Amino acid sequence: KNQVEQSPQSLIILEGKNCTLQCNYTVSPFSNLRWYKQDTGRGPVSLTIMTFSENTKSNGRYTATLDADTKQSSLHITASQLSDSASYICVVSPDYGGSQGNLIFGKGTKLSVKP
Amino acid sequence: NAGVTQTPKFRILKIGQSMTLQCTQDMNHNYMYWYRQDPGMGLKLIYYSVGAGITDKGEVPNGYNVSRSTTEDFPLRLELAAPSQTSVYFCASSKLEEQYFGPGTRLTVT
């Protein structure tokens, strides 16, 4: 069964610290893996999209890594800010292009950044 | 560009009532989607559309209907609201890989 598992479920860190969120997936075939940020009461916003041939991709202070062999991804946040407080969702697509109607969503990691 | 807009933001329905959740995008995207997000759960796809006049079921379509008469609009219809449909509903659109989400509609059925 296609699944996306994220850990930890929630995380509290102090402002300025770094953190790493994990995503393991059992999706086959595999097209790409995305990380989304969802602020409370808002829709998800894309951070990164990586295909199976990409090992790492950055978006400002966010760096995603992908190991397609072990089917693991991580999202590293550097020098956290209060505005990083949100849920981070890992999403895997088994489809190459097309309708993207089969995305598999993880349950998300809720990050709280405290001053 | 406004992106993806959804109305209403909040709604309370009584069991058995009907309503339509509106979704509009101004990015000329062919693909549009409806998801529901329950507390502590990942987003689940309800319906999606690959273009005007074409719709298809997602993972959880029961109790919902959609139509796509124009590229811009993709309304979601609830015919007989049930408490199990209490959720947050997100509309999204895409041209290629990246999906753009609306702000969501929080629906409570009592």
Short description:
Chain A has 115 residues and is mainly beta. Chain A is 0% helix and 54% strand. Chain A has no helices and eleven strands.
Task: Explain what this protein looks like in three dimensions.
The complex is a heterodimer of chains A (115) and B (110). Chain A has strands spanning 4-7, 10-14, 19-25, 32-38, 45-51, 56-59, 62-67, 72-77, 86-93, 104-105, 109-114. By secondary structure, chain A is mostly beta strands. In chain A, a hairpin with a 4-residue loop joins strand 7 (62-67) and strand 8. Chain B is 0% helix and 51% strand. Chain B is built from no helices and 11 strands. Chain B is globular. The interface between A and B is medium-sized, with 24 and 25 residues.
Key words describing this protein structure:
heterodimer, A: 115 residues, mainly beta, 6-stranded mixed β-sheet, 5-stranded antiparallel β-sheet, 11 strands, 54% strand, B: 110 residues, 7-stranded mixed β-sheet, 4-stranded antiparallel β-sheet, 0% helix
Catalogue the unreliable spans of chain B: none
Structural class of chain B: mainly beta
The general outline of chain A is: globular
Radius of gyration of chain A: 14 Å
Number of strands of chain A: 11
Roughly how much helix do the residues of chain A carry, as a percent range?
A: under 10%
The main β sheet of chain B shows up as: 7 strands, mixed
Shape of chain B: globular
Oligomer description:
heterodimer
What ranges of chain A have pLDDT less than 50 throughout 5 or more consecutive residues? none
